[in-house]
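As a warm-up, study this chain.
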Amino acid sequence: MKKRPTDNKIVNVSGQYVDIYHKVIYPAEVGIHRGRIASIKRLSTAPQQYMLPGFIDAHVHIESSLLVPSEFARLAVVHGTVATVSDPHEIANVCGMDGVTYMIENGSSVNFKFYFGAPSCVPATIFETAGAAIGTSEIAELLADNRIKYLAEMMNWPGVINRDENVMQKIALAKKAGKPIDGHAPGLTGEAAAAYIAGGMSTDHECFNYEEAEFKIKQGMKVAIREGSAAKNFDALIDLIDRYPESIMFCSDDKHPDSLIEGHINQLVARAIDRGKDLFDVLRAACLAPIAHYGLDVGTLREGDPADFIVVEDLERFSVLATYINGVMVANKHESLIPSVKTTSINRFTADPIHEASLIIQDKQKDVRVIVAEAGQLVTKQTWATLTAVNGNLVSDTTQDILKIAVINRYKKAPPALGFIQNFGLKKGAIASSVAHDSHNLVVVGTNERDMANAVNAIIAQKGGLSLCDSEICKTLPLPVAGLMTTDDAFLTAARYTELDRLAKERLGSTLGSPYMTLSFMALLVIPELKLSDKGLFDGKSFNFVSLYNDLN
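Now compare it with the structure written out below.
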């Protein structure tokens, strides 16, 4: 529950007051009364610590932290995050409306400001099997709830451009409710992007480069500069803040627990300052812009506001000394003061164990299409490769760093979809995950079929999780909540994830910075170029299935 002080005592906090609106800093004493800012008194001197509004993640999928919202909050507040704009479409693709309700109710059990959107694309596409669907009637129900602040990212950009009836009905509902619509159009520019934005899209967190983002800003969009565990666009986009400071926000999109332990939006703020960006422009993006755009009930450190603010050691590194939400200190000197709360699980998982024989790919004496994973990006490329056959079947080739990949339907019995992928770097074994955006079927990459089957079956036994197997070991991080999250302690989960990540790199040889996060996006069809769904290889540019084999040779 969101605690608010109930007595008449005024709590005072002193330091250097950072006034983002007037672009001044001066010594002051902030008085907190009944959860709000009662007063801001200018002083002649004050401690050399800085008071400023709390940070806000402008677009994040809480599920990607592998933590339920209440545990996510325990990590986030240590880094000065007081609120998130959260799209629950990951759990919605598994559990539908029940999943959205779960996120809202669990998030409300702690003193943190989670703001959820109505998932617009459940399922994300018709080219994959999801566990649920959210139609226009459900969207209308969600948007009527004042806890739902926006229509979450409209990934079906072709549907917007072509004015698909179902898509446009959802957009119309958001407009009628007076709630903003999040966009999702990676790499889209020119007339297509203009038509997409004209449909009502107000933000995009998927921009690859400066030119794309600038075009979208000039069309009226806000750009959320993303730096997550897998997709990292900060370096390409941060210079936008020089010319378009009023159009910039910061987000993580997807943040695994090991990187959330290290930092959150505070890291982006520090990096921007290190790049010589204007302090007040940076803080506006990190603290104020999401409040204005989404209409959030988050304080901006002005009299009468909710007392949501942070105290930082300096304005270079932004090391957080204390975090306050609703007037209650929730983090103190790098220690979270939010207690763990008991919560139940929700899931939909019916997959049966698989056999390694189901992962065999027949050699047709043709080149094969290969997904090329890109470190630090959600986008992929495609290439063609000649692979050696063993007993008439194509196998992983570690000398070319081309491994077998499979996606297995978790909702109903079906043969695995198979393909090949480059740049994972595994020299032995396999890694697997039931976090596989957006439908969250099972995805596995490996050097041989036996280890791949064992990795998948280890997850099936737990009804969700991450796993790593080779000929000697098989380790699993169970994720019983929709196969996406655990109810366990956030700090313990981060340590367990860090160990799996370490083994994937040091024991199996992965060369990726975040192999499990990258793996989770290899079934995300709405991000080009080549992905694999439970139904087959998919070209994200043409939005069509494609053959594994090169039929021209």
